[in-house]
Amino acid sequence: MRMYDLIAKKRDGLSLTGEEIDFIIRGFTNGDIPDYQMSAFLMAVYLRGMTDEETARMTLAMAHSGDMVDLSGIEGVKADKHSTGGVGDKTTLVVAPVVASCGVKIAKMSGRGLGHTGGTVDKMESVPGCRTSLPSEEFIAQVNHIGISVVGQSGNLAPADKKMYALRDVTATIASVPLIASSIMSKKLAAGADCILLDVKTGNGAFMKTLDDSIALARAMVAIGTHNGRKVAALVTDMDTPLGHAVGNSLEVAESVQVLRGCGPADLTTVCRELASNLLMLAGKGTLEECRALFDEAISSGRAFETCKAMFAAQGGDVSVLEDGSFRKAKYSHVVRSPRGGWVCATNTEQIGIASVMLGAGRTRKEDPINFAAGIVLNKKAGDAVQPGEALATLYADDESLFDAAAQTFLAAYTFGDEAPVLPPLVMARVTESGVERF
Ligand code: URA
Question: Which option is the CATH number for 78-154+168-323+427-438: 3.60.15.10, 3.50.30.10, 3.40.1030.10, 1.10.10.10?
């Protein structure tokens, strides 16, 4: 078999056999297939797509390219969630402790920020001392002891995905249903959970910009997980607007604490409530209504916040910052004001994510350090009325010279009008093995 011929086959729109897909994934993982050939192949997949059979086979080959985590040492049902990536998306920091505090084990591997989107592992590391890499015995013992651990992807979990993702990030081949589905589901299958809730973001801040593409992605991932014996469901949720008000690592941790304390922003609380209750339902904790009541009780009793603190403490984090919000603050702040009155009709959420990366909250190159205190706190979002000169947001950075360009990018993301816009629902669809419900 020659990689050249397989690239040509996909370029010409033909389907690959299982053996051909195994050859590509194995060869790329062990270094026999060079980056330039894999990049050409990824572009061919991006342009020509893959059949469901090809996507499923590639996912399995990627999952088996490294360790398959054995969670059998953890008693009870193990649950996991995964977001396809968004701006201000800090839902894991709420959903995971809520679900764990309701008796479902969370043994979760999360990712770092990617492009304009943030990542849970970076957010967790903004809590001083917090370790996101644990030896596997300690990870398992922590889950057995307190019900929850969230760590970064271990070195040898789906290494094919790690290498493919790095290429996709720089070859404009991210937003492809077969490539995202296989990337996410290979990690989820390798990570070993019984129940998986997928949060498929849709809109101008997501990798999938349209509802139809997002539903197609959700269906592909649910089918792959179900065929591999896992209980999987997906919610398609809005990413035309950042979630909550905070964008940037420690700012987002502080906002998730607000939700855990029952006083978070309404949109973020609603999305967390729907994600957590759907995951609890998958894990057999009752009907959706019963699981929503479990969410409410976990928050109002303070149990979910206690579980969150126990997780950070077990991983070496200084939980006093969660209790009193005493994260290190950025040295400088800069208020961006509205050039006119009226309504905020829409925001280009990807640009808001990019503005926060420009302030230091994300990476432009893989090796860049993150400034945990940098980011944006939004005062006005789509659907809000605004007066001329009123604050739209405050930007935070340790270097004042970053404000000019970031503020320009941020402001260009806003569209104003004279009438209140009609906003989409926060949860737009639910996809399970039995079909798609649109809301
Ligand atoms: N998140 C992933 O893990 N992979 C993708 O391809 C996109 C988002």
Answer: 3.40.1030.10
